[in-house]
Amino acid sequence: MIAVRPGPPLAGTVTVDGSKNAALSLLAAAAALGRPVRLSNIPSNTDVEIMLALLEQAGWHFARPVDQPTTALILPTDTRHMAPALAQAAHIRASYYLVPALLAQRGEARLPWPGGCRIGARGMELHFKVYETFGDRSAVDDSGYRVEAVAPRTGTVSLVLPFRSRGATVAALLRAVTTGRPLRLGEPNLSPEVVCVLDALKSVGWDTRASEHLLTLAPPSSGQVDDVAWEVPGDKIEAGTLACAIAATGGNARIEGVRGQDVGLLVSALRRLGIPAGIEINALSVRAQEARPTGRALRAIASLSPGGLDADFEPPLMALAVGLPGNHLFSDAINPGRHGNLLPQLARLGAEVHEISPTECRLTGPQRLTGAGVEATDIRTGSALVVAGLTAQGVTTVGGLDQLRRGHADLPGKLRALGADICEVTP
Fold first, then answer.
1. How far is it, in rounded angstroms, from Cα 36 to Cα 34?
2. pLDDT tens, position by position, 14-31
């Protein structure tokens, strides 16, 4: 577990790791491409390590330069035999990204139901709809699912998503790559984690065009690019969590390695609360020592729409807003079980949060928190509790360190580098 105590305002400079969510989709894209891909800035969190292990078990190969621990060369498999049971796929949500590569490699994909954070029902029906539109056939049972490539088809694949699913959008992109077919996808998800896949495909010759209502993808018209080198973008969620921690402690610090456009809404939220924050091309700065709390209400409403607030920003913003004046509203209908995880843990610290519905809540600050034992039941609940613990009187112990490590290689270490009083302890 982690022990956190209030200390001096956080200060200094820290660099975020690569984005977990982007790395998972780019690793799957590299497998689907069927060519050697050099991928850099790979974070070393548990979910990414599991994805690499799954690729290796399924026949892909990867090598890491000794002097570049965050870089891997992913090499295509030359085997056609059936993959062993990929049991570890049940531990991460993004294991479903492997389906297109497995279909291209073996003609079928058999996987257990995906795991990940327990934050509400997130079914795969829309994924199956994507594959069926490509002519594949799917079947399910209690233990998992099977997707089979039936008969090769040609021509453009057209599909309109009923909601802007990131997973289904990536699935459609990667299946288009493995079939070599043009794609017209209506109402796509255009989060940075999807855009980085589009950028990667564009770098190898695919024609990619994306607007709010239509995404098109067309195969390369010329020969292959010899050297394929992609980079995982910096983790915007880790940057947002660190920014909230800096703001909560009244500190001044700089967060490097994150693209400014990926954290624009987070910065807007901080400014609304009266906390000076600025963005550059690859950095985010927070100057909370100059803060003048506005008392204005923060409306942190998660949205899948282009330009909407990423749901993973909501928990650390809630932990920050507890200590600031205002009547603040939070809503996350994307992950309907997240509030059920987070609110009881914040209550252990003394936070009073009014639950309007299972996905919407309101709190009035400022409130004073008191250290207590809490549990990280999912990644973002864990990081939000760490932020809260930085201002709670006394010692806060956060259990469930394995959950935190699924999304962060070393969040406590980064906070410690900024001066936080935080350490790992043995129960």
1. 7
2. 999 999 999 999 999 999
